[in-house]
Each structure stands twice: as C-alpha cells, then as structure tokens.
Amino acid sequence: MPIKIRNRDEISKLNDLLDKLSNAVETGVLDKQEISNSYARIARLKSKMLTTSRNESAKTLSAKINAAEKVVGRQQHRDNEQVLSDASITLLQGSGELPKSIKTLQIFMPDDDKCAAMLSAFRKLSHTIKVDCSPYYELNQQQIESKIMLADAIVATSVTPQQSLAEMGGMDDYLRLKKLLGNLTKNKRIQDEKLQRLLSFAQSNKKHISFVSLRMPYETSNYRQYADSVITTYSYNQYADAVTGEITGPAYLSLAKLLLGQLEATGVSPVTIK
After folding, report:
1. Domain extent for 130
2. Phi, psi at 134, each rounded to 5°
C-alpha cells in the first residue's frame, strides 16, 4: 500500500492519492489503459474474495479452525517458499561461491536468531567447512578482529532498512537488546561504521569476503569495495520449526547453497546500484 489509513483523519490521504493518480493519467505520466487493466484485475479479485468471505462467515468457529489447520504451515507451502527464495537471491558482484580452498568460515550476523538460522542452513548441506557465526552488534573491535584472523573467509551481513527491536526479539532478550542498542537510528549509524571497520580489517588481512544484504540492496554500494562477492536475499525472516524447534528460514538456506556452489544466483535486482 502506498499509504496507511489507521484513523478517520488519515482518510484525506486517500483522496489526495486518488487526485494525484487522476492527474498522472490526464497528463500522460501513467498509461490510461494500464490503469484500466489494473482496476479490472483488482475488481475481479475483490469479487472473488467477497464471495469466499460470505461463504466463510457461515462456518462455525471450530470449522474455521479445522480448515485453517489443514492449510497453514503445510510442507507444500514451505517448499514453495524455498523455491521462491532460491530463484530470487541476487548476485551483484563476484561469483558468490566460496573458494574451494576455504576451510574455516566466519559469519557476522546482526543478531542471534539470524546466526542460528545460518548455522542451521549449513548443517543441512554437504560440506567440509568449519563454520562459526557471531552477532556483531555485541562484539567490540578486538573481538571481531580475533574472529577474523582465525578464519579463511568472512561473510558479513546487514539489514537495511533497520529492523525494530521487536523484530530482533526471538532468542535475544528484549530488555537486553534495548539496553545494548538504545536509539535505533543512532545505533544503525554506529553499526554501519562497525561493519565498515570489520570489512576493512578483513580486506587488509587478505581474507575472502562476501557481503550480504539481507533486506534490500541499497546499502551495497557502501561496502562493495571491500567484498569479493556482493549478494542480496531480500529477506531476513526466520522461524522456529514446529517439529524440531530449530531456527530456520528459506533465505539462509539459499545463501548457504550459493556460498557452497550448490545454487546459481538467478535473481535480478529491482533497483540500480551505483
């Protein structure tokens, strides 16, 4: 949605948007036929959904719960999610694959949940690399440098736009995170500076470096000068498996497969990065 309507006062935003849309069509900025096609497509979908909604409203609560349990979290959905993740991962620079000579890999993630998902992904794949992962937000420069020196290759990741504290919850304690991170805007700048020092140190010590943007690739232009490979996944989501309890996520498995040469990156960036 281009706007959010959460109260009566914000309804005027919709009117303003519609006025701008009409003006864009009248002045030729937007194609009238494309707008008409979009309207027809939305109208068909709304008609279909409203019919479905009326049928659903007639069901009892228990019937709705039973129907939901047959659909939500199905393995087919998980499989489809992984296929989409594999197809969307995008290589912006380099080959994406770690050199065959790599024996030890140090991964730096924004938080513990992402480390858990990344390590889970590597455990699911066949390889001989010793992999370690650390949430760099709570490491000082000396700790970071020590970990870099013990590794043959580095994978450094970032999330832009910045996550909220609630998103970074999960395995991490919310109050501990709030104390560590404080003001998120200020902290994001500090973490970006820490990430640059991390990458610069790894580069000066001739480590193979992969930089991964876990959300959108806007930030990659700030770090590509340090990296052998630059990758974007468009997703950083992870969840606890309902059966095993293991923290996992499709984007992390796609990334691990790419790094190990078990997946070819076929995604295309939706934005131009300079």
Report:
1. 75-259
2. -135, 140
Looking at the structure of the chain, the number of domains it has is 2
User: 251 and 144 in one domain?
Assistant: yes
Q: With 80 as the cut, is the pLDDT of residue 145 above it?
A: yes
pLDDT band at residue 167 under the 50/70/90 scheme = low
The reply to whether 272 falls in a domain is no
Query: Do 37 and 95 sit in the same domain of this protein?
Result: no
Q: What is the pLDDT of residue 240?
A: 86
Nearest of 261, 217, 223, 247 to residue 235 by alpha carbon: 217
> Does 156 share its domain with 247?
yes
**How many Cα atoms within 13 Å fall on the side-chain side of residue 118?**
29
Average pLDDT over residues 161-174: 58
Please choose, from the candidates 201, 218, 125, 124, the residue with its C-alpha nearest in 3D space to the C-alpha of residue 156. 201
In the numeric block, which tokens belong to residue 259?
């790094």
Distances (CA, A) of 206 to 10, 62, 165, 212: 54, 61, 34, 18
pTM for the whole thing? 0.72
Domain ends where: 63, 83, 99?
63
pLDDT at 1 over 70: no
Measured CA to CA, the distance from residue 46 to residue 48 in angstroms comes to 5
Same domain, 21 and 101: no
Would you state the structure tokens that stand for residue 135, as one six-digit string? 């949430």
Candidate from 20-24, 148-152, 153-157, 224-228 with smallest mean pLDDT: 20-24
Neighbours of 244 (CB within 10 A): 9
Residue 165 lies in a domain: yes
143 and 196 co-located in one domain? yes
| Cβ atoms 115, 121 nearer than 8 A | no
Which 8-state DSSP code applies to residue 88?
Answer: H
Hey, what amino acid is at 121? A
